[in-house]
Amino acid sequence: MLTVLTALDLARMQFAFTMAFHIVFPAFSIGLASYLAVLEGLWLWNKNSVYRDLFNFWKKIFAVAFGMGVVSGIVMSYQFGTNWSVFSDKAGPVIGPLMGYEVLTAFFLEAGFLGVMLFGEKRVGAGLHYLATCMVAAGTLISATWILAVNSWMQTPAGYSINSKGQFVPEDWMAIIFNPSFPYRFVHMVLAAYLTTAFVVGGIGAWHLLKNNRSPGARKMFSMAMWMAVIVAPLQIAAGDIHGLNTLEYQPAKIAAMEGDYESERGSPLILFGIPDDQAEITRYQIAIPRLSALILTHTLDGEVKGLKSFPKEQRPSAQVIFYTFRLMVGIGFAMLSVGLWSLWRRWQGVALYQDRWLHRAALIMTPSGFVAVLAGWITTEVGRQPYTVYGLLTTAQSISPVAAPAVGASLLAFIIVYFFVYAAGIFYLLRLFKKLPDFVNPDMENSPMMAAGTMPGPAMAAGE
Amino acid sequence: MTFDLPFIWAGLIAFAVLAYVMLDGFDLGVGILFPFSKSEHDRDLMMNSVAPVWDGNETWLVLGGGGLMAVFPLAYAVVFPALYVPLMAMLLGLVLRGVAFEFRWRTKRGQFLWDWAFSGGSITAALAQGFALGALVQGIPVLGRAYSGGWWDWLTPFSAFTGLAVVVGYALLGATWLVMKTEGPLQDKALAQARVTAVATLVLLGLVSLWTPFLRPEYFGRWFTFPTLIFSAVVPLLVAACAYGLYTGLRDRLDYRPFLSSLGIFVLCFAGLGISFYPNIVPPSLSIWDAAAPDKSLRFLLVGIVVLMPLILIYTAYSYWVFRGKVNPEEGYH
Predict the structure, then answer these.
(1) pLDDT tens across A260-281, in order?
(2) Could you give the CA distance from residue A202 to residue A364 in angstroms, rounded to a whole number?
(3) Within a 10 A sphere around the Cβ of B207, how many other Cβ atoms?
(4) Which end of chain B has fewer CB atoms at under 10 Å, N or C?
(5) Which of B96, B296, B304 has its CB closest to that of A418?
(6) Per-residue confidence at A454, pLDDT binned at 50, 70, 90?
């Protein structure tokens, strides 16, 4: 195998593999840190013990997920140097300081306060402990800001010049950070992180509701998660649409590949499904809606959308990958919206939110949906950036280290073995934690012995939720 | 007034790496000593003594690595491919030991697995850092703007020796940390371990110091010609002072002095390295000015580090303060 694959292939596989395993954890911990801050804030504010118990429940899950995110993230910061040294030498002067700021403003903040948040509850007061939780939550968002500025700069470089050594030299830091795709990508990713967390929280809540639909903790987390779904999912769909228009402006080849559209034409159809073939330059078996692509992307019925054929073959990303990943992401987005609307309808009916077992089953199935959507979205945008690392300026093939294929192959193999071992265990322990819902003391129940005696929950209780 | 930005940054990167070595050194050291304590109770305490701070300690490694990319991108691009194998081993070691901090508490049946991951990962990471250090001291060949050697060049008798020295040195930091953080039988054990590793560290350090000047003529010149010859008198004298502090601290069973003295020895080793290297960042041919990023990059990040580093030091110190004193066996959220 190693003789067939070049060092470049192996380095790309290694980056994709380690990145895919890394990104699911930040995607989860960004949302979960904010959720923990909300839970602890509510507990301090209204002293409803459900919030405190939920905080302690999710805190342990956060600790596991955050630890896995940290260690897989250190790998990323070293891999730029080991596998992509030419890229690092050339782009380091621009993206390096942004990552430096990520460490200074986010990583130290998270790490410094995480210890207090996890272990310091009895050593510091409630107020300081809450401050620590908020600092951790802020750290995750600050971290996302910097790293998305870096990624966006690689997609839509701005504010730079190129010196005699072939390095990118920063000219205007504001233009570099707020490069054309950054605001869109940032909003899209943070919303994705919130949705991912909402569906994990909602799915675990639904799971416990299926076992015992009177558990106040399960009810509370399910209700909170479904509110997030119904509010954030439509926002995300809108954000994604606007992000797409931005991509059309700066990376039209990526859009053409996402659409599976090889031909440029006026009034382009929207290809709902088909099988793109990059060699033959055609999407076979397509089911298309006339003019819809033109309408979505140009907001006119006879607008022109460029097809892949209008770009030289060596500058095209692979439609055979991102045509599918894009559809997977969009499909999940609409499924999330559907679950959110379903819950809203049930909520409007009162207590049905906690009794519709099919809704709970649907939410349970959707538990990992955010992770799948995040991965599909990242594959779409990263494979869509190919064949470049810095879009239009530095190709992936030029970026690689002068390192032997066996070295990259061996380390890739080592990563696969270690990650599968570590992540299999991690997921197993997370599932075990998900299962251990504490026995909640429901303040409502304490005052209403009738319900505690085992009758169906009445409307009064539902109103209290 | 103009500043020599690459010089300032060389100092800051050196500070980040030194902070990493001092801080993660002791928590890796606790992992290295793990196999020598068999009882579950002792292992719980050992791990809990570093659990609240290890994550922050490792952040210095990211600052050192990520900072290098930002301010000395050429050094980053040359050194990392040259040290490919030790760095990959280090990363995998850090992954295994890092997850062990949580996973170990999640299982009874599989606890032995994570005990192994914690100690195995710690030893691997320390050994890999030692190999990397030795390979860097020996020098890294550069052609144009890239590493020009092979992927096994890092493996030499000297680098194997520094690998061993770092493992033993970290074990000393770990042992003296445990002296400071524990009591009773566990502290007795840590005292015994500190005595053994202290002697071993000083012997290995002496041998590495004698070996290094003969690796490259410029190192020899640095240590055996005037005026830098002065360092050859001062640095060993200070090491001797730290060694004496370590000796008395362990003899009188003091809590803090052994740990602080051990840290002092590490600071002096690091200073010795700096004396050998300067003005190169990658021996033998890449100076800090060759490797530096354009001034605009250096200046932009300098503003951030000047403003933020004091804050970082304050809240890092605060989090150590919160967890001060002996580890309480009853505490921990697990």
Answers:
(1) 888 888 888 888 888 998 888 8
(2) 7
(3) 12
(4) N
(5) B96
(6) very low
Nearest CA in chain B to A95: B70
3-state secondary structure of B151: coil
Q: Would you list the DSSP string of A320-333?
A: HHHHHHHHHHHHHH
The candidate with the shortest Cα–Cα distance to A188, out of A155, A235, A146, A230, is A235
User: Across the interface, do A92 and B73 touch by the CB < 8 Å criterion?
Assistant: yes
Structure confidence at residue A3 (pLDDT): 59
Residues in Cβ contact with A206 at an 8 Å cutoff, skipping those fewer than 6 apart: A218, A222, A359, A360, A361, A362, A363, A364
Answer whether residue A294 is part of any domain.
no
B300 contact partners, CB below 8 Å, separation of at least 6:
A97, A170, A173
CA atoms within 13 A of residue A39's CA, in its CB half-sphere: 25
Is the Cβ–Cβ distance between A135 and A113 less than 8 Å? yes
Per the domain annotation, does A292 fall within a domain? Answer: no
Of A67, A170, A414, the CB nearest to B101: A67
Output the CA–CA distances (angstroms, integers) from residue B156 to A2, A411, B137, B138, B146, in the order listed. Answer: 26, 21, 11, 9, 21
Residue of A36, A98, A108, A416 best to disrupt the B interface, most CBs of B under 10 A: A108
Set out the domains of chain B in order of their start, with CATH numbers. 5-322 (1.20.1630.10)
Q: What is the mean pLDDT of chain A?
A: 89
Place of tokens 């030194």: B18
Mutate to test the interface with B, among A53, A78, A94, A122 (most CBs of B within 10 A): A78
Per-residue confidence band for B333, with pLDDT thresholds at 50, 70 and 90:
low
Is A282 contained in some domain? no
Does the pLDDT value for residue A446 go beyond 80?
Answer: no
Closest-CA residue to B94 (of B140, B59, B63): B59
Per-residue pLDDT, B204: 95
Chain B CB contacts of A170 below 8 Å: 294, 296-297, 300
Q: What's the total number of domains in chain A? A: 1
The tokens describing B16, both together, are: 């980040």
pLDDT attached to residue B197: 96
Paired residues of A394 in beta bridges: A390
Does residue A288 sit within a domain? no
Least confident of A281-295, A306-320, B148-162, B320-334: B320-334
What tokens does A298 get? 């140009």
Q: Contacts of residue B65 in chain A, CB cutoff 8 Å?
A: 77-78, 81
How far is residue A352's CA from residue B129's CA, in Å, rounded to a whole number? 59
Residue B227, SS3 per DSSP = coil
A258 residue type, one letter: M
Phi first, then psi, for residue B19 (nearest 5°) are -60, -40
Q: Average pLDDT of B183-206?
A: 94
Question: Which DSSP string corresponds to B106-149?
Answer: G-STTHHHHHHHHHHHHHHHHHHHHHHHHHHHH---EETTEE-S
Domain, as residue range, for A347: 7-264+306-464
Closest CA to A317 of A272, A380, A366, A268: A380
